[in-house]
Amino acid sequence: MKITEVKLGRISVPLRVPFKTALRRVDSVEDIIVEIVTDTGHKGYGEAPPTGVITGDTIGAIVGAIRDHIAPKITGLDILDLEDVLQTIQKSIVHNSSAKAAVDMAVYDLYGQYYNIPVYKLFGGARKSISTDITISVNDPDVMAIDASDAVKRGYDTLKVKVGADTSLDVERLSKVRYAVGKDVRIRIDANQAWSPKEAVRILSNMWSRGLDIELVEQPVKAGDIDGLKFVTENSPVPVLADESVFSPEDALKIMHMHAADMINIKLMKCGGLYNALKIISAAEVYGVECMLGCMLEAKVSVNAAVELACAKKIITRIDLDGPVLCSEDPIIGGAVFNEKEITVSDEPGMGIKGFERGRLIYI
């Protein structure tokens, strides 16, 4: 099964409501789709979102990395020489983790198709279904309370609440949300690097003392401030999840060794795909560090790949794969079934993605 062509396309999917964090506002998913074609006629699919404020990857950068660097090096390679193909992807260009992730997942898709096995079973097959949280965008506290209530009415029992856009309002935001949803709903918060270490400890301690019952805080400080992250972990009553601080297996190992965070958030777009994600998981299993499997603002192709991984490994204990349910529609055929919080992985060979509704994938 040799790679004969790497095609690129664009897909646009509007969101139900604007997605707002301390770093950005997004109104629609605008992603690059990778389609790898082989001499056997099989096709594998991948996806990369332009998340410049986090990964540094823009539409132009993703297209250029794949078209000019990755595709020429993997064309002609045999999918069955999996290790060689995956290492070639990683070595073809520095950084550009989203481009690498999109090609990486398409390769795994084809590998599973060849052996007639779903990728989640290839990786371990721990479970058939998972439950995701849903993101509550940062807004006026009263608006966030309404959004949280609506999410609970839709069946969600775990909310990821964005904070940090105006730190003076963060405690009020969480107070309003907690009052609106009651005590039985799990609340995670994500500061997206917005706080200083001492500010984080002060805010989290205040939330704790008010009985807001926060399950965890995601990336409270700047990505590169590992010492600051460790300070928060050691002094906060709320468990700390490292996100933007973890791009590579080396980053994850450093944080685990320093105990700079209680948990690790794995995102395929940060680490460069399933190949490196599996390395992070292996390290986490050794250190006994629980992981979250998360996503950027992505449509179903790439989130589906994350679902395959999440369903494969027990060390992944928390799921933040709400990208497709934040979209107002799903133009992608096949793959996992997203029924609000409940996600069921496909038993089709590979990743199970069959294609796109007519006219929705625009080749470039």
Topology:
Layout: E1 3-20, E2 25-38, E3 43-48, H1 59-74, H2 82-91, H3 97-114, H4 119-123, E4 129-131, E5 134-136, H5 141-153, E6 158-162, H6 170-181, E7 186-190, H7 197-209, E8 214-218, H8 226-235, E9 240-242, H9 249-258, E10 263-267, H10 268-271, H11 274-287, E11 291-294, H12 300-310, E12 316-320, H13 323-326, E13 332-334, E14 337-339, E15 342-344, E16 353-356, E17 362-363
- What topology, given as strand order, has the largest sheet? 5-6-7-8-9-10-11-12
Overall 3D geometry? globular
Instruction: List unreliable stretches of 5+ residues.
Output: none
Ends: how far apart? Answer: 25 Å
Instruction: Please give the count of helices.
Output: 13
The value of Rg in angstroms is 20 Å
What is the N-to-C succession of helices and strands?
EEEHHHHEEHEHEHEHEHEHHEHEHEEEEE
Largest sheet: 8 strands, parallel
CATH class of the largest domain: Alpha Beta
Number of domains: 2
Write the CATH homologous superfamily of the largest domain.
Answer: Enolase-like C-terminal domain
CATH architecture of the largest domain: Alpha-Beta Barrel
Please state roughly what percent of the residues sit in beta strands, choosing from under 5%, 5-15%, 15-25%, 25-35%, 35-45% or over 45%: 25-35%
Mean pLDDT: 97
| Total number of beta strands | 17
SS-derived structural category: alpha/beta
> How much helical structure, as a percent, in the residues?
25-40%
- CATH third-level topology of the largest domain: TIM Barrel
